[in-house]
């Protein structure tokens, strides 16, 4: 990764949904023109790193993202997508095969950042990244949802060929700080590995937009996960809102600013052009140490477990 990597990356899991309200994991109404607006505003504000995955709508997110980026030069944005072991085909090289399909959907001949999505079999899949790095099909590699030991194993395998794990992508939010407790954040800091934090906004639950009176979209996957715990998040969200109010920013921006203050690069799942204004504000917010400590205490008091069904213990 380079020093040019933006302070915040953009996530497009929700873009893999059909776009109909209540349909899909996120259940937000998303249109091609709305997402084009998101892209234009993001690009013009320096948010140029786009994270996707095959599994987000089984290729749909990659296709929708490529469409929304049309007209921008390939050097103006960076693409990040993932090899998901559970979707591996039975060809000779399932990693190369999945990558080629992603490149095709994304309309490009290289990726800036390619991830092994989870540690299903580190020793089996990691070596298959090496020829792709050598051929320049992928510029940098990262591992996602890996423990400290799994990161070290992947790094050893790549190291034998002169490459290394350059980035880690794990769930990290005020409510879910397992990577910090496991020493992964510290490891990344010490070894110049960029830590990308995902679900910083807990899929909307930490934005202040949703509450027991205004829950997440009925029928969506995220509603099933979060609506039941919204009452326990209110004290934290109110404090985030108060801290933000002093800076003209809503709670969501404080969550993002917190993740930046912790030395991570948040991947924010933007769905509306106005969310980019939030990222511009968050980029400029400096939280005091006491504010960070206070937010983390309130998050601990909420005592909720937001670990994703796909995650294991760090
Ligand atoms: N490697 C992995 O296993 C993994 C797992 C999960 C996610 N990820 C990556 O991380 C990204 C982020 O995670 P996520 O999309 O699941 O959840 P998230 O970023 O925590 O939350 C996204 C939701 O928050 C709302 N939102 C986004 N930006 C906002 C802003 N500035 N202000 C107010 N509300 C805002 C939107 O909800 P509304 O549409 O309701 O407004 C959006 O759907 C994903 O898109 C994906 O790229 C990776």
Automatic annotation (TrEMBL):
GO terms for molecular function: oxidoreductase activity. Residues 8-298 form the NADP-dependent oxidoreductase domain. CDD domains: AKR_unchar (cd19103). InterPro entries: AKR, Aldo-Keto_reductase, NAD(P)_OxRdtase_dom_sf, NADP_OxRdtase_dom. GO terms for cellular component: cytoplasm. Gene3D superfamilies: NADP-dependent oxidoreductase domain. It comes from the Bacteria. Keywords: Oxidoreductase. PANTHER family: AFLATOXIN B1 ALDEHYDE REDUCTASE, PYRIDOXAL REDUCTASE, CHLOROPLASTIC. This is Aryl-alcohol dehydrogenase-like predicted oxidoreductase. It comes from Nocardia transvalensis.
């Amino acid at each position: 990764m380079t020093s040019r990597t933006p302070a915040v990356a953009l996530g497009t899991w929700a873009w893999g949904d059909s776009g109909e309200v209540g349909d899909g994991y996120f259940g937000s109404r998303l249109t091609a023109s709305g997402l084009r607006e998101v892209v234009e505003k993001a690009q013009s504000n320096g948010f140029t790193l786009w994270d996707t995955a095959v599994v987000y709508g089984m290729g749909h997110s990659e296709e929708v993202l490529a469409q929304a980026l049309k007209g921008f030069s390939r050097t103006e944005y960076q693409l990040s997508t993932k090899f998901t072991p559970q979707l591996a085909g039975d060809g000779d090289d399932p990693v190369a095969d999945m990558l080629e399909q992603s490149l095709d959907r994304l309309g490009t001949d290289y990726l800036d950042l390619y991830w092994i999505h989870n540690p299903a079999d580190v020793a089996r899949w990691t070596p298959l990244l090496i020829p792709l790095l050598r051929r320049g099909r992928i510029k940098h590699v990262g591992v996602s949802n890996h423990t400290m030991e799994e990161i070290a194993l992947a790094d050893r395998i790549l190291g034998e060929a002169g490459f290394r794990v350059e980035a880690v992508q794990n769930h990290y939010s005020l409510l879910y700080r397992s990577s910090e407790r496991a020493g992964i954040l510290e490891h990344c800091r010490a070894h110049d590995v960029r830590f990308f934090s995902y679900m910083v906004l807990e899929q909307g639950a930490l934005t202040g937009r949703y509450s027991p009176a205004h829950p997440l979209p009925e029928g969506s996957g995220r509603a099933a996960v979060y609506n039941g715990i919204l009452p326990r998040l209110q004290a934290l969200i109110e404090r985030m809102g108060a801290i933000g109010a002093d800076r003209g920013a809503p709670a969501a921006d404080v969550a993002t600013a917190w993740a930046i203050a912790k030395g991570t690069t948040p991947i924010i799942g933007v769905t509306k052009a106005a969310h980019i204004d939030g990222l511009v504000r968050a980029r400029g917010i400096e939280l005091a140490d006491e504010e960070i400590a206070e937010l983390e205490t309130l998050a601990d008091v909420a005592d909720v477990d937001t670990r994703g069904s796909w995650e294991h213990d760090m």
